[in-house]
From TrEMBL:
SUPFAM superfamilies: alpha/beta-Hydrolases. Residues 1-23 form the signal peptide. Keywords: Glycoprotein, Signal. PANTHER family: OS06G0520000 PROTEIN (PTHR11802:SF321), SERINE PROTEASE FAMILY S10 SERINE CARBOXYPEPTIDASE (PTHR11802). It holds the Pfam family Peptidase_S10. This is Serine carboxypeptidase-like 18.
Length: 455
């Protein structure tokens, strides 16, 4: 797997001739979008490891509301190894979803971009993701949870030094899916640097995560309960699992439990786990790294082109768009630094060296940092039941009990607030990467929370 990744990079000797640093570029036009961009976009690289020449590529979208005072949000996307680009989740662009005809995919402005109320930094991390690269191939070998986190912290320190205008703005770390595991780790490192008086002083106020992976048993142990609750498995099968598995639905201790869990997984395989009411597409399943680890055979079944009714069709378009020379030139991508662009590099060598991120959540909230944890309630990849369970394990007192939160007179989801400024919320009808399924509701939820208002 590692060998195939290095071959796919196709890194030529020209890397040795590239300048060590590059100033940021302001991007005013992008291929596939008609006219001038209706927002301020800056792209660039930040060197996070001098020895290997590791440079992380970023997109900075300035707030369209009040950039001098609005929050700055770092947003990381899934993976590990999935590019943030500017089309996914919180970004200001989206693809026009029409059948591909061989021409450059067209784009449109995303009216629900989080840049409506915050400045956002979208980062291709870890190295090897998107347009981020290393001069020395050794930079790709030692990649994992800890190095990922520390590279992001280094990136932020250098980015704020180069952008002193934003140092006083409230800052939040955010991420979804697997990036939700990295988010509290990154935030804790920043908080420790603040306590030690390190400069620049980043004005960290908290963090927010969507459908977050934690690495703990909570992530997978509630699949049976959720599947039963939404009618995927029968009462009889669920009762058999409860009676024989004794609360452990991950590592069966007897044959009857094992049989029940295998049957449950067979039934779950009939649907799109990321969005239980959606169309099941193999392309969509491959979005989830930890699912791929358990179902490696899916990679052999992935079609070259998903059908337009697949949720991942937009990812297919992004691969086409990002591999155009005109696109790379417009974004300021250094020539010769990467080969083929892939939205998610599933073959990337990676060490899963953090067993659980839950202690980081607890540490941060105990130290007074604000936290928003949200889940799409139609996600079986990371069921909201498991996410809420680890939050409840903190035994925090309830400040605002379970209730609906509303948008336009309708319930946008449900929420509960605990002591230590910890809020949990669901997005009604949202799947995995809930923001992409419910962009309007996600923007409203995030804006209220970032503005320190109740949901």
């Amino acid at each position: 797997m590692a060998a195939s990744f290095f071959l796919s990079l196709v890194v030529p000797l020209v890397l040795l001739l590239l300048p060590l640093s590059r100033s940021a570029s302001v991007v005013t036009h992008l291929p596939g979008f008609h006219g001038r961009l209706p927002f301020h976009l800056e792209t660039g690289y930040v060197n996070v490891d001098e020895e290997t020449g590791t440079e992380l590529f970023y997109y900075f979208v300035e707030s369209e509301r009040s950039p001098d005072t609005d929050p700055v949000v770092l947003w990381l996307t899934g993976g590990p190894g999935c590019s943030s680009l500017i089309f996914y989740e919180v970004g200001p662009m989206k693809f026009v979803l029409v059948p591909y005809n061989g021409s450059l995919p067209e784009m449109a402005y995303n009216p629900y971009s989080w840049s409506k109320m915050a400045s956002i930094i979208l980062l291709d991390s870890p190295v090897g993701t998107g347009f981020s690269y290393a001069r020395d191939l050794e930079g790709y070998r030692d990649v994992g949870d800890f190095s990922f986190s520390m590279h992001v912290v280094t990136f932020l320190n250098k980015w704020f030094i180069n952008h002193p205008h934003y140092q006083s703005n409230p800052f939040f770390v955010g991420g979804s899916s697997y990036a939700g595991m990295m988010t509290p780790i990154i935030a804790q490192h920043i908080s420790q640097e603040i306590e030690h008086g390190k400069q620049p002083r980043i004005n960290l106020k908290g963090y927010l995560v969507g459908n977050p992976f934690t690495g703990s048993d909570y992530d997978r142990n509630f699949r049976a309960q959720y599947a039963h609750g939404v009618g995927i498995i029968s009462d009889q099968l669920y009762e058999a699992a409860v009676g024989n598995c004794k609360g452990n639905y991950i590592r069966p201790q007897n044959k009857l439990c094992d049989m029940a869990l295998n049957t449950i997984e067979d039934l779950i395989s009939e649907i799109d786990e990321g969005y239980i009411v959606g169309v099941k597409c193999v392309w969509d399943l491959l979005r989830h790294r930890f699912m791929l680890e358990e179902n490696a055979q899916l990679s052999k079944l992935s079609p070259e082109q998903p059908t337009i009714n697949c949720f991942a069709y937009r990812y297919y378009l992004s691969n086409i768009w990002a591999n155009e020379n005109s696109t790379r030139d417009a974004l300021g991508v250094k020539h010769g630094t990467i080969g083929e662009f892939k939205r998610c590099r599933k073959s990337m060598p990676y060490s899963f060296d953090v067993s659980s991120s839950i202690e980081y959540h607890f540490n941060l909230t105990s130290r007074g940092y604000r936290a928003l944890v949200f889940s799409g309630d139609h996600d079986l990849v990371m069921p909201f039941l498991g996410t809420h369970a680890w939050i409840r394990s903190f035994n925090l007192s309830i400040v605002d009990d379970w209730r609906a939160w509303h948008l336009g007179g309708q319930a946008g989801g449900f929420t509960i607030t605990y002591a230590n400024h910890l809020t949990f919320a669901t997005l009604k009808g949202g799947g995995h990467s809930a923001i992409e399924y419910r962009p309007r509701e996600s923007l409203d939820m995030a804006q209220r929370w970032l503005d320190n208002k109740p949901l």
